[in-house]
Amino acid sequence: MSYLNNPQLSEVKLKVLNSALHLFVEKGYFNTSIPDLVKHSGVSTGSIYHGFKDKQSIAEELMAQLLWQIEGEQNAVLAPEKDAWQQYYDLCRWLLETAQNHPHVSQFALRAQHKEFMPELAPICSSKPFIRLREVLERGMQQGLIREMNPMIAAASAYGGVLRLIQLSLDQMLSQPPLEYLDEITETCWRSVAADTEK
Amino acid sequence: MSYLNNPQLSEVKLKVLNSALHLFVEKGYFNTSIPDLVKHSGVSTGSIYHGFKDKQSIAEELMAQLLWQIEGEQNAVLAPEKDAWQQYYDLCRWLLETAQNHPHVSQFALRAQHKEFMPELAPICSSKPFIRLREVLERGMQQGLIREMNPMIAAASAYGGVLRLIQLSLDQMLSQPPLEYLDEITETCWRSVAADTEK
DNA sequence: GTCTATATCTAGATAGAC
DNA sequence: GTCTATCTAGATATAGAC
């Protein structure tokens, strides 16, 4: 089952967007020509340009769809009654799951240099899903589970390790699939921001 | 003073490489044309192609020069007599310094999707400087300053936060220049891998 | 709405004078 | 070694039949 499956979208648009996700990640946006998309998707040039204004708008619609789907999944993962540690753990599991089961999605959302082909798009780190990652840590500070500190530092430290691990995984630098490291990486990263429980 | 200044290189090659660094980061490799390089460097098309085989080899030589220079600086930073914490701290200061004083260098080395325009280049995380980052942590484990754990996890956690902070800085998401966060981010990230000194 | 055929343009790369 | 002028290929995008 492919990741993109918004029933609002026509069959051809879905085909094109799925091919775009595949090819943009495998070859890069600029190395992917419209004829490449035609070949991979089975949709003709004319139909592509009937559905999309130009090549850039394919990337933009792809990004919008992915963000929409990511946001939905993230909301489903976040159970408000849990404490900050549990929320953090669940979010990290979801991040690693996505990297494992839909590596192209992670790669496009996290690694692509969007500025180069979507100049007016806001950077991914100011997107809703990234903001919610930070919010979990801020709740953790209010709960006393995380020590008081600069929220940006806390976010960089708590999620930086996990995101770095995902990048290493996408670069084939790990011997195991990413989820294998879930407990070890979350416990390790959490220590960096956790309040001292000793005293 | 520009970052690239290897006296082995001819004046024109240096001009071209410095312009390439600037333009590849500002506009991206694929959005930078040879005429763009001509305009920015003041070197003519003919001279560029006299010095370089093709556009790709400009990027390759740029990367090679940067890695060579980075490796030299890293060696100068690493004082072998210091303990692992001090080495880690010095390396992080050097990373943040580079991001602050030569953001284009950090951006090209850390963020560019090299695979897309230099297909046969090894990923940056398997380069010598990245390996040395990991070695410092392994020495830390031998010294008992870092708890025993998967070296990849340790590296992802200890450096992931710092690298993440650098990315946020390059994305203009921080209010202060990166070096301002040096102590806070290193102490925070180090906690994640530090051995328990209590017992 | 979907297709094929094609127009147009710009990039990378070269030729050849100096 | 450096320059200008130019070639050529392949990309995006369009036109127009069905």
TrEMBL record, chains A, B:
Keywords: DNA-binding. The keyword Nucleotidyltransferase does not apply. Residues 10-70 form the HTH tetR-type domain. The keyword Coiled coil does not apply. Residues 33-52 bind DNA. Gene3D superfamilies: Tetracycline Repressor, domain 2. PANTHER family: HTH-TYPE TRANSCRIPTIONAL REGULATOR RUTR. This is TetR/AcrR family transcriptional regulator.
